[in-house]
Amino acid sequence: MDAASRQAAQPPAVATGVTPFDVTRVRAEFPILATSVHGKPLVYLDNAATTQKPRAVIDATSRYYETFNANVHRGVHTLSQRATDEFEAAREAARRFLNAADTREIVFTRGTTEGINLVAQSYAREFLQAGDEILIGTAEHHANIVPWQMLARQRGTILKVVPIDERGDLDMAAFERLLSSRTKLVAIGHVSNALGTVNPVARIVALAHAAGAKVLIDGAQSVAHAAVDVRALDCDFFAFSGHKLFGPTGIGVLYAKAALLEAMPPWQGGGDMIKTVSFEHTEFNDIPYKFEAGTPDIAGAIGLKAAFDWLAGLDFAGAIAHEHVLLERTTAALHAFPGLRAIGTARDKAAVLSFVIDGLHPQDLGVLLDSQGVAIRTGHHCAMPVMQHYGLSGTARASFAFYNTFEDVDRFVAALGRARDILM
Ligand code: PMP
User: Fold this and answer.
1) Could you identify which of 93, 192, 373, 374 might form a hypothetical disulfide with 37, taking C-beta atoms 3.0 to 4.6 angstroms apart as the criterion?
2) CB of 46 closer than 6 A to ligand 1?
3) pLDDT band for position 5 (50/70/90)?
4) Would the pTM count as exceeding 0.90?
5) Domain harbouring 157, CATH code
């Protein structure tokens, strides 16, 4: 990570090998972490797919349904007003979380995927012309590839892909070569879900802006691992999903600079996104409501606010340092594992470990680990092009959150050893 990114993303404190972070106390707040799978205490290492939820998030969601369930924005009755207040308080919490300037810049979505599609189908479809170029990286999630391919069919835009090197680092020299006055948008993952690579997003934003391009950051994998400041990053769009940040599924946030949202046309029509409707003329609502047609995920937004609040009370720097130690410990153990090849060894990595083991199919590994209570993910991780880059059909992937422990690491490595003994 370059100096500017480091400042903007406030990455882990230096890992010392000793972590003062009270992981036992934190774990106690996640009810699911006390469950067993196949009679074994759960070791949950699939956090890149989705994170577990603390009691505070579960309770906030239930409290909404139990005590003030009502639709938002349209009711004068007490429950509707309370639901609206809490929904809008969630928007303010999201603004604070991202350090956005204004709640008008916070659009609630279903998640990262919907946020990126919104930018493609509203901003890019309106403002990009045939021949205009969009730059993405090789390691993008399908959610940051397919919307641009769909747009290319609609508008004749051109998708250009920045290569990665063998370690999984973005080739920044190639990025600079590909960037030109034809580049209108750079859409880049902050952290790769398949490799763990942390991209130098602050530098990417600066270079892209100098070339006159806008920047969208796919923050699905970064928000739970580093504090994000959209104003320091100066990105134009930033999308993430609540469920990867200890919040509910079905809710996400698209941050966009207010001037862009003002200029962008709505992408879905319906209730709430209008001021007046007649058969002759419809006047659209103000931002961000112009982009929130229909009843939103109210419980999801309230649950997401609970996640923001819960995180605000956490020693986040300690949590990130702890996660970093978990990454180092697991990396060292896997390095010593016979026949294991790590896929993705970037200089700056989040706590994601993709690997293959000679002679073992990742799927078989995943099933055998599950039988020992260890949840990892196997397959292409919705990033088929990066698998193609490494000549693989898939990998096994362990991904950590700050509630994981050294014991989780040790049980994971022991389970891998047993799986190898059974399969070979
Ligand atoms: N981008 C990245 C980097 C991801 O890891 C994911 C989820 N795996 C997504 C986008 C899509 O997120 P969602 O499915 O929550 O929309």
Assistant:
1) 373
2) no
3) very low
4) yes
5) 3.40.640.10
